[in-house]
Amino acid sequence: MNQNSKINEHKNPPSGDRGIKVGIAGGAGYTGGELIRLLINHPNVELSFVHSKSNAGNPVYKVHQDLIGETDLKFTNELNNNIDVLFLCVGHGEAKKFLDETNIDDTIRIIDLSQDFRLHQKSAIANRQFVYGLPELNKAEIKKSQYLANPGCFATATLLALAPMVKSGLLSGRIIVDAKTGSSGSGAKPAANTHHPQRMNSFYAYKPFIHQHVPEIEQHLHAVGRFGHELVFMTHSLPVARGIFASCYLETTAQVSNEDLQNLYRHFYESSFFVRLVDGSPDINWVKNTNFCDIAAHSNGKQIVVFSAIDNLVKGAAGQAVQNMNLMFGLDETKGLIFSGGNP
Fold this sequence. Notes:
- The protein has 11 helices and 15 strands.
- By secondary structure, it is α/β, with parallel strands linked by helices.
- The strands form 2 sheets. Strands 3-2-1-4-5-8-7-6 form an 8-stranded mixed β-sheet, sandwiched between helices. A 7-stranded mixed β-sheet has the order 10-11-9-12-15-14-13.
């Protein structure tokens, strides 16, 4: 079945699923805006409130102007417990504080888009145990979960690129990941080195050896298979607004032909709708505004390169959070996530 056939198959799923009442905490940033866009168009969702202290009382479209005419919701400083699931789009380090200070009913499911609960040693608070939410690698646990930690954008692109090779047991030596991201990954508030006018005609590396996603990537590669390899992970700033492109360089214990490599990836992702295997190289323009991760893998005998591309705000954040919500509530994981990407 080609990808267009798969999309047509999922565009008009059976009706009759109950509505899911949703709240968003921290809806004024880029990720919050992307999440609102997805949820107001989701066929099984009622978006009850969007919380923002700094914008309380203002129409949502005053901040997210792409939503003019699509919603009359206003930001609120009040939260209520008459919801089924709460998305946390607060800043890194703020989610735990928010849960400590806020009375949230135990029946409400929580999907956190910050990094606060992604690592095993930090994945619990009070009586809440968070499950790591990368659907292609952890779908069974996600379906049973009450509290979910949405993966980081770099971690998503890297884990999906590396998981089939780690599972195969064929790796030898160190793994080098050269990853690049657009300016929206730094959030809506500009800083001297992240503001788009500074980045738009520039290219540079940042956080060498100390990027916050490294422990997350290493931890969840261990969950895929036996992983004892050195990971060298470097990040760079791309002169674009959105998109992540990761180039992963690997060595194997034995000769691996291109045909065997393609078969390995095809088999690993045969039931993963949102992973597309492409020829040559992915392009961030192909995944822009979509929930797809495009992957290409190439072999030169014992040397392998794997490329992956995602939209950092969709598959790397809000889209993946909606995909996880679908799984948690027993819906088809593609619900509300089938739409065309954009042109350059």
